[in-house]
Automatic annotation (TrEMBL):
Residues at which 3-amino-2-oxopropyl phosphate binds: N8, R19, D201, G223, H224
Family to which the UniProt record says this protein belongs: Belongs to the PNP synthase family.
Top EC category: transferase
Cellular localization per UniProt: Cytoplasm
Keyword terms of this UniProt record: Cytoplasm, Pyridoxine biosynthesis, Transferase
Keyword Phosphoprotein: no
Gene label: pdxJ
Domain of life, source organism: Bacteria
Entry protein name: Pyridoxine 5'-phosphate synthase
Amino acid sequence: MPAALSVNLNAVAMLRNRRDLPWPSVTGLGRIAMVAGAHGLTVHPRPDQRHIQFSDLAPIRALLDEEFRGGEFNMEGYPTEEFLRLCEENRPDQVTLVPDDPAQATSDHGWDFAAHKENLKAVTKRLKVNGFRVSHFCDPDADERQLDAAAEIGADRVEFYTGPYGGTFDDAQAQMRQAELLGRTASLARERGLGVNAGHDLTVANLPPLVAAIPDLAEVSIGHGLTADALEHGMAGTVNRFLAALGHANTERP
Ligand SMILES: CC(=O)[C@@H](O)[C@H](O)COP(=O)(O)O
Ligand SMILES: NCC(=O)COP(=O)(O)O
């Protein structure tokens, strides 16, 4: 079964926030993506609300509940009390915890699971009690000690940070080495009962080698590259291109 595609709406929100106007519509583009066959929507409500605003969350949840039953809502963030409460109020299907400092320009590393084991155990339990699937952002070169800690924390999945992989767009040999590394680390994660997601700087061009390296990849969440393509090909056509790159037959919703 090819990996699920979750469309990240951060970049749409960033464009919307340039003016005090309601377009481009975050839920509007999310709807087009879902009609075109996306399996879910991802947002990262950062503390400074630089793109996704807390007020965006309930409309996205309502869109999926009312128009796309089965479509998944993935919320990403650092586990502050504020973020955990946003999750409890807006009921995502999956929560992806990332070790981001509020001032970070973007997400650029995974957790040191061993160093943060006790805190991550507690927040993971709190989220799972709410019925959310819990994923933790993970470095592509995480070793067995880190993955043992991730499993002990109780994560359902890890999401591999694919920024270094995406950065090899102009070096085929480096891309192959990064894909092989991700495949090895994914095998270690699967041996520990962890599901495998991936995200950051993924594109139509670099998805095929990634899915070949990680055959049981569960989900990819993609925003920046997908939104850039949508400016050229439209959101519906872009979602179909990304689904095809993942190996899906045409899954546009009737
Ligand atoms: C966790 C990750 O790699 C991305 O989902 C993250 O949401 C990107 O954040 P920005 O869109 O703020 O760069
Ligand atoms: N978790 C990765 C994500 O949601 C989007 O990352 P990007 O495609 O915007 O780099």
